[in-house]
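Supplementary Methods, section 5.1.

A reviewer requested that the exact input to the structure prediction be made available. We therefore reproduce it here, unchanged from the version used in the analyses.
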Amino acid sequence: MKKIDQLIHLINKYQTIIIFGHVNCDGDCFSSQIAMYEFIKNNFSNKEVYIVGSGVRKMFPLFYKPHIINDDKFKGSLAIALDFNEDYRCEDNRLFNCEEIAVIDHHNKGKKTIKNASFCYINNSLSSCALALYILFKQNKNINMSPTLINALYYGIVSDTNRFMYLEKDAKSLTFAKKLIKLGANFEKIYQNIALSNFNSFNIKSYIYSHYKVQGKIIYCFIDKNFIASLNYDGYIGSFVNVLANLEGFDAWALFIENNDNTLTCEFRSQDKPIIPVAIKFGGGGHDFACGIQKIPYEKDIISSIIKEMVKVLS
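The structure derived from this sequence is encoded token-by-token as follows.
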């Protein structure tokens, strides 16, 4: 049985389906949630479908907001977890109140991969969860692809490839993005939304440019909690890691973000050599060249220890 048919069979068993994303929701995660919502709404009759989590605020005018639902909705429902496969990465812990869980992702399997998932499709060769969904949907020619679903898939692919800078070895993202444009994806509005910025974003970039440090061929920046508190910013600071990208003479770049609970959130990127061994050693995960640590205790010398490990891994 094809993977899509397994998923359809699972969805058919439930009246209520709740779609989950990961902490620090990004464009690929939220657009994947929207795409799955549209898929179910347009291909199944009389289903209650909800998106939970924070979403991405600037995407709301282009699509819509997540739903706010009571706890009693989760009991006896199907959960669909998108763009993550480890339990601690889930933004809404009510995931584990659901009857069954389906997981669709494109990250490397971690040590805390969700156990006993009734459906699991993880393909870490893909650049985005949106692409994983599109590949699934294309397995069944009878699936109704609404304009919103098409736009959401395109948004996720463009967002997580950083506008096609980071592709698979066979450049699947380009191939499937072309198909979505032919289906009517509004690429102009999507690009405008992805590029949309505000004055807080400008201040964050300015801070990074003013406070970066260099060690060998690694450039990095520590962003302290007092600066973050001075902003009226509800997005994910770690998404600014690529402000330090593509500088001549550097093999890797990183952000270290201080949290209010005496922890650090870390984002790592590299040019040619995989940097994920660093993330894994310190309890994180992700992709070979783009990974991070959700939270690690902010102890003395932890940043220098991580940087030393980066140097070691890249040498």
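The longest helix spans residues 27-43. These observations are discussed further in the main text.
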